[in-house]
Amino acid sequence: MNFVEKVKKLQNYFADGNFKRVIEGCEILNKKFPDNSFILNLSGMAYQRLNRDQRAINFFELALKADNNNISAMNNLANSLKNTEQYFKAEQVYKKIIKLNPSYINVYNNYGNLKSSINDIEKAINLYNQGINIAKEKNINSLVFLNHLAVAFQSLNKLTETIETVNKILKIDPNNVNAHQILSSIKKYSLTNEETMNHISQMKKILSEENFGDDQKGIISFALGKAYDDLKDSDEAIKFLSIGNKMMHKIRNSNIAEEINTINDMKNAFENIDLSIKHKSFSNKKIIFICGMPRSGTTLVEQIISSHKKVYGAGELPFLSSVVHNNFFNDSKLDKRKIAELQNSSKNLVNDQYFENISLFNFDENVLTDKAPLNFKWIGFIKIFFPNCKIIHCKRDPKDNCLSIYKNNFSSPKMNWAFNQKDISNYHNNYSSLMKFWYSKIPEFIHTIEYEKLVSDKKNEIEKLLEFCELELDDNCFNHHKNNKTPIKTVSISQAREPVYSSSVRSSDNYQDHLKEMFENLI
After folding, report:
1. CB count, 10 Å around CB of 499?
2. Pairing state of beta strands 446-450 and 390-395?
3. Mean pLDDT on 370-397
4. Do 510 and 445 belong to one domain?
5. 261 and 243 in one domain?
6. CB 47 within 8 A of CB 53
């Protein structure tokens, strides 16, 4: 078998998702043909697909060393830099690609996604549109750009533009599940509304067809579950939600054991750490960390606080989790000694690294919100390394909370535990245990806002919230649903754009008989 045949065989392995075979084959070829930019790039791509981005970066850099005009390797390098939150470096590479080859279409999608990650949505929209124009010139499919464009418009609450973009997608591909999912999140389904009922029929027809993968069936099933939940038909809703969760649980490896281990590690690590010893060096900017279980009201609370004229809403940021893992974990194991070591260090590396990432965001405010729900795991680190910050803990009725998780399709791999009744309830039980631990250690550092109290006594709860955050009263906070300055990129997008409502309180009552495994496992 000659070189070309061997490469084609590796490309077939790659297309089939057999990335380990690709790596093994590339290792053999690299020995025979060292400094071959194509093979080095292919090795990097395989590592990238296995989520081993740092290893991938090494190969992409070697590929570029062998051929500094390898645009594909440049694009892949930038993507892995973005995946590892090295946004500044990634942006420089994307800019270089556009300068070298302005018609290289892939860069506009990837660079647009980076801009979206740092809340520069308008720039992201501009880049997606550039990609669409190039696609027209080359007479190639622009669906990937249109999908991201629709999501970008929706995050800014530009519903007219969102629907126009979705309609363009459906004109090209009437069965596009992502477009139907976006429509389902916008529509309020009603038996008296013929349009919404027709949309349900369209989605059911898509689900019945054979040529869709499990991921696509999962997406459309969640959309149908939402539709029937709107119609208050819990029997039909749970039928489709069960299909959606089953599909996603099948294709995504649950990380529940890893998450429970991390939560237990936090209790063990901080049991004997004096949390009154705070680091003396920290940024003068104040972060309001909004955390709790996903679907507990964190997006709503961020919209309320970020409506304040002195607050910038940064959204759901991955930075704290990354900084903690980079500094305190070795091979997924927590190094307790590093906590005390950095606690007493002259430099506050955790604070510095976090704000280095934040510097990419374009804002002037001195106070910002970070609404990553799972940051509840890192409250001990926040207390030590961000002593001037505030922690808002969002709490919700456990059954309502777990039902809401079961009803939604989360894209983040950190949420791979969210597609199984037992996993969801186990996660909630462990979250609850950790929060009791933090309260026993630092009760005054955490402000709890209960979703049920917020929706029943909005004025009083918002006033207490602002007082804890040391912010003066601002009428904008009481009209948060009019706040379009903070993009929303989570599954809560539609609800958080509405006035506070109480219809989701005790929503689990309608599903008591359907979700016994989950509800009965809650502590």
Report:
1. 11
2. parallel
3. 96
4. yes
5. no
6. yes
The SS3 of residue 389 is: coil
Same domain, 286 and 360: yes
Strand duo 329-330 + 333-334: pairing: antiparallel
CATH number, position 472: 3.40.50.300
| Residue 36 belongs to some domain of the structure | no
Closest CA to 311 of 123, 465, 489: 465
pLDDT digits over 123-169, tens only?
999 999 999 999 999 999 999 999 999 999 999 989 999 999 999 99
Q: DSSP letters along 264-333, please? A: HHHHHHHTT--TT---S---SSEEEEEEESTTSSHHHHHHHHHTSTTEEE--S--HHHHHHHHHHEETTE
Burial environment of residue 94 by CB neighbours within 10 A (0 to 12, 13 to 18, 19 or more): buried
3-state secondary structure 256-273: HHHHHHHHHHHHHHHCCC
Q: Are 19 and 46 in contact (CB under 8 A)?
A: yes
User: Are 310 and 415 in the same domain?
Assistant: yes
389 & 498 share domain:
yes
CB 491 within 8 A of CB 296: no
Is 429 within 8 Å of 445 (Cβ atoms)? no
How many CB atoms neighbour CB 96 within 10 A? Answer: 14
* Domain, as residue range, for 228: 174-251
Within a domain: 134? no
246/278 same-domain check: no
Tell me the two tokens of residue 452. 């049920």
Query: For 377, which DSSP code?
Result: G
Same domain, 242 and 266: no
Rounded to whole angstroms, how far apart are CA atoms 336 and 458? 41
**14 lies in some domain:** no
The 10s digit of each residue's pLDDT in 221-230 is: 999 999 999 9
- Whole-number Å distance between alpha carbons of 119 and 313: 9
Packing angle of the helix pair 53-66, 37-49 (nearest 10 deg): 170
Domain tally, the chain: 2
pLDDT band with cut points at 50, 70 and 90 for residue 500: low
Per the listing, tokens 């960390």 go with: 289
Work out whether the CA dihedral 7, 8, 9, 10 comes out positive or negative: positive
- What are 481-497's pLDDT values in tens digits? 776 666 766 655 555 55
DSSP string, 52-115: -HHHHHHHHHHHHHH-TT-HHHHHHHHHHHHHTT-HHHHHHHHHHHHHH-TT-THHHHHHHHHH
Residue that finishes a domain, picked among 198, 219, 251: 251
- β-partners of residue 329 are 334
pLDDT of 3 over the 90 cut: no
Decide which of 189, 222, 251 is a domain's last residue.
Answer: 251
- Given this model, what pLDDT does residue 488 score? 66
144 in Cβ contact with 173 (< 8 Å): no
Residues 514 and 432 in one domain: yes
Dist CA 450 CA 444 (whole Å): 16
Q: Does residue 98 belong to any structural domain of this protein?
A: no
Neighbours of 61 (CB within 10 A): 15
Structure tokens at 413: 């791999």
